[in-house]
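> forwarded from #structure-qc
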């Protein structure tokens, strides 16, 4: 195979505009500051807002009484034009970070911006180069950046982890973290932990072996790598065939940002599906550590414990989605995970012990999970050429988009997708960088709906739901103002009462939501920021809206100034 050659750029992307090319310097963001992020709610310092993944803010200027007056303060147009890398559509999926009035946000096709968070003025821009023919399973997307040590960190489409100068956007270092020719790519937001930058791989649909990596935040030198499919002789290798190469292309990619417990010094990483997705006959066994939460020692990369949600997955039920950390009233350290398979799990995050499991969707036909965690498959594509229908479909009862937890109500707010699919097994020989699904899949285009479900994780009781005609394909955000924010596939951005689910406010953004909103304040004024831009893997989660309006705008809302 011909080596991939980076052709470079004819002119720096930043020169093709009238932007200033610099942002005001902020005080240093480091590990200790991110660890104490709840003490400065005016900023959104890391991907989930805090290490625990709760997506909760103590800001309350925008609340149940005032939210009716919420209106756009500014709109930033990302300007997606021309050719995009990859054969699939782009989508604006990021979660904006804010540090002392400066917003840092990534967009599709390797772009990053620094923006004045008060006015929406663009301060600098950067674009990472990537080949047009890069193998992407699920859209030209990037879910966000990390900020710290005077730098902005991004994981690029062609699997480079890069560091930019936070004041100028100029590249400081660039480290290759995957083989783009083999189908590896990058889409996750990096995470700063201690003096390292943590990031996971993507590309499971191409039969690559997933991994989580740690890099020196100052130099880009790799500290450790943890493969999520064990090689022969390693713990877990007995769950793969003991001959052949199935483990080498086993999947288990880490394409969503982990959460982190600084006291335990553990990263909680969700892993993706095994490969091929639907043809389990070529990979007999449970296929560890696919479809799992894996607790990884942040210092060494060693696996301390794991919990597998769907052993020997035959439905494409990645478990990459977030592992939300919270404590029970008795102080027990818990972890909540809403899996693609339609079940909600509560684990003890110190040891991975199952505390509770219950369904959070209405329709589950693929199988059943007993209260003790025993998994019984019922419907799956096991005969060549025979179509099999199942719920949830491969996008899951909840996709990668994130739930949130409000400590005032004790409830977790889950964006739920009710959509099934039909899979027909089609065995294919493995070919590097070619999709390795093992089936033809058709997602339902008529029988679907969605809702926001407010669940008590301690009891499994659903307290309320806000139902929508379409599946919920965007993250929730909750605040001390007693609100839950949710975007819909048809462009509506809504505020719900966190206690009752009543819709209190809405705004039509003009394009569907598939991102993660964040909140911050500047000069005492609270803002809600949400990127909009319908696209990505639409055929997998809502093909009925493949023709809906695309977009690439970031809306920032606030109350009218006095």
């Amino acid at each position: 195979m011909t080596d991939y050659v980076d052709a470079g750029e004819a002119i720096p992307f930043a020169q093709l505009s009238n932007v200033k090319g610099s942002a005001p310097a902020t005080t240093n963001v480091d590990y200790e500051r991110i660890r104490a992020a709840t003490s400065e709610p005016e900023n959104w310092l890391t991907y989930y807002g805090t290490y625990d993944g709760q997506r909760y803010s103590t800001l309350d200027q925008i609340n149940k009484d005032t939210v009716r007056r919420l209106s756009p303060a500014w709109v930033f147009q990302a300007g997606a034009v021309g050719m995009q890398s990859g054969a699939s559509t782009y989508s604006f999926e990021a979660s904006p970070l804010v540090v002392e009035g400066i917003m840092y946000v990534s967009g599709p096709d390797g772009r990053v911006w620094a923006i004045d968070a008060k006015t929406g003025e663009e301060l600098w821009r950067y674009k990472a180069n990537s080949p047009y023919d890069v193998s992407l399973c699920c859209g030209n997307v990037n879910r966000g950046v990390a900020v710290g040590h005077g730098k902005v960190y991004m994981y690029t489409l062609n699997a480079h982890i890069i560091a930019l100068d936070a004041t100028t956007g100029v590249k400081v270092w660039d480290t290759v973290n995957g083989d783009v020719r083999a189908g590896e790519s990058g889409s996750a937001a990096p995470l700063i932990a201690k003096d390292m930058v943590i990031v996971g791989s993507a590309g499971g649909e191409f039969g690559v072996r997933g991994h989580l990596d740690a890099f020196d935040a100052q130099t880009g030198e790799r500290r450790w790598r943890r493969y999520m499919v064990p090689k022969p002789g390693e713990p877990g290798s007995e769950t793969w065939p003991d001959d052949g190469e199935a483990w080498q292309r086993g999947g288990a990619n880490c394409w969503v940002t982990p959460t982190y417990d600084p006291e335990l010094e553990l990263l909680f990483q969700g892993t993706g599906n095994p490969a091929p997705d639907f043809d389990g006959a070529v990979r007999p066994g449970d296929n560890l550590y696919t479809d799992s939460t894996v607790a990884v020692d942040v210092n060494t990369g060693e696996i301390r414990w794991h919990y597998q949600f769907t052993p020997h997955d035959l439905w494409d039920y990645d478990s990459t989605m977030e592992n939300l950390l919270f404590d029970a009233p008795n102080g027990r350290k818990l972890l909540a995970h809403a899996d693609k398979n339609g079940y909600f799990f509560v684990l003890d995050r110190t040891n991975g012990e199952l505390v509770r499991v219950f369904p959070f969707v209405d329709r589950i036909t693929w199988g059943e999970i007993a209260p003790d965690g025993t998994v019984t498959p019922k419907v799956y594509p096991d005969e060549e050429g025979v179509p099999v229908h199942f719920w949830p479909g491969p996008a899951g009862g909840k996709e990668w988009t994130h739930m949130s937890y409000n400590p005032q109500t004790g409830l977790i707010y889950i964006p739920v997708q009710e959509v099934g699919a039909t899979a027909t097994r089609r065995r294919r020989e493995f070919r590097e960088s070619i999709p390795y699904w093992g089936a033809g899949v058709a997602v339902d285009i008529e029988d679907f709906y969605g809702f926001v479900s407010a669940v008590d994780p301690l009891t499994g009781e659903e307290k309320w739901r806000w139902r929508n005609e379409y599946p919920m394909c965007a993250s929730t955000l909750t605040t001390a103002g007693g609100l839950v924010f949710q975007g819909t596939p048809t462009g509506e951005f809504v505020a719900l009462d966190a206690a009752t689910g009543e819709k209190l406010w809405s705004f039509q953004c003009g394009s569907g939501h598939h991102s993660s909103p964040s909140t911050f304040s500047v000069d005492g004024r609270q803002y809600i920021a949400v990127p909009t831009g319908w696209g990505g893997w639409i055929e997998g989660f809502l093909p009925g809206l493949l023709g809906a309006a695309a977009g690439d705008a970031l809306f920032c809302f606030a109350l009218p100034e006095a």
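QC bot note: The CA atoms of residues 338 and 344 lie 4 Å apart. The longest strand covers residues 439-455.
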